[in-house]
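Worked problem 6 (solution included).
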Amino acid sequence: MSLNLGMFPIALMLLALLIPIIYCLKWKRENLRKVAIISICCVLIVIGYRITVDLGKIIEPSLGYFMGKFILFTLFPLIAILYLEKCEIKTALLQTGIKKENLSISILFGLGVLMITAILTVIIWWGKIEPASLYWNVILFFEAFNEEFLFRGVLLLYIWKITNLKVAYSTSVLAFVLAHPQHLTSLSLIVVATQGILLGVVTYKTKNIIGPWISHGLNRVIPSWISIALGV
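Solution. The predicted structure is:
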């Protein structure tokens, strides 16, 4: 059984934005405007999600999907932060975890999370994982960066900057889980939740999203490789 949200398949993630909005209304009104603009940005992401399909019709399905997610999940939030902070792109990227600082430990922790999520994926989807082409696997790997930028870079690190860690972490994890409604009524929810929780920990410990991106990207392709190797 899958959850059908029609034209707005990731709309449930907007519920998570109520957390920082309510927090700012009660305790940090001076940053309510910033949270509101990030929330509006997420609304636009939900409304514009159709572009991931429409671009595929214009260029090529896989590349169109990647480009659509890049525009929505990376460019939109980045522009919002540039507007809010009146800063240079380099500063905005640093604030969202794209940096050299703690890079090695971020990658190391990310690979540790990958071991857990990949094993869970193989167990839950045993015999049901279909092998994908190398081209699609490459697209999936690099597209994972877009989700990490939004869910860990913006909704965790940036929201943390303007609220507090508990608010940001809760927002990040809940938004990530709710943005994958196709898993909400199946055992694969375990993998999504585990990934959201653990990659969130890696991000707030290292303030770097490169490790989580590598972990997320490889988790999309390694389970299929394992299935092929095991002949299942």
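Discussion: The chain has a mean pLDDT of 92.
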